[in-house]
Amino acid sequence: MDKHVLVINASPRAEGNTEALCDALIAGAKKAGHRTAKINVRTMDIKPCLGCYQCLAGKGTPCIQKDDMKEIYTALDQADTVVFASPLYWWQVNAQMKTVIDRLFAVAAANNMQMPQKEAALLIAAEDAREENFAQIVPYYQTCLVKNLNWIDRGMVLAGGVNMPGDVQKTPYLKQAEDLGASL
Ligand SMILES: Cc1cc2nc3c(=O)[nH]c(=O)nc-3n(C[C@H](O)[C@H](O)[C@H](O)COP(=O)(O)O)c2cc1C
């Protein structure tokens, strides 16, 4: 069955390592017959969560803030699989991705704190290739984006050892991302 695969690219660097991973995953997903969409957070105006809990009170659709998060809410609604793609910043997803994740609270709130079930995958670009570099991002993904959302993990690509744009081209990680896309 073909799926709708939504890739959320939080890298501020156009055509950087994270975006190359996204494009490789999308190429694999397309080959497998899936429909794909890529959202580049860097082009969007997405404000941080206000913590106003208006979403819990049923106000907003699903959030009272009127900004480009609306586009992500619509895309999310249509997606079977959501790919979270971020450069590693200070051992975590970057602030752009964290802002998007915070704003997902409103979707859960609009659904009695039960996120609509989806599949998840993670793409990370990072300078440091050591396994310990990913010791925080992996449990964060598994806890917050898989267990907490009650989503199904479809895999991760942790592209360590890439720093300058284009570095990822010389690594096996693009193939890994393409294979992950094809396996969805
Ligand atoms: C603010 C900042 C924080 C970073 N923190 C880390 C880090 O904790 N670990 C790491 O391995 N690389 C870190 N990096 C390097 C980036 O993850 C790396 O350059 C990555 O390839 C960037 O992806 P992009 O090409 O999509 O921008 C950091 C870079 C920046 C700008």
From TrEMBL:
The keyword Flavoprotein applies. One of its GO terms (molecular function) is oxidoreductase activity. This is Flavodoxin family protein. The keyword Flavoprotein applies. Keywords: Flavoprotein, FMN. Residues 5-126 form the NADPH-dependent FMN reductase-like domain.
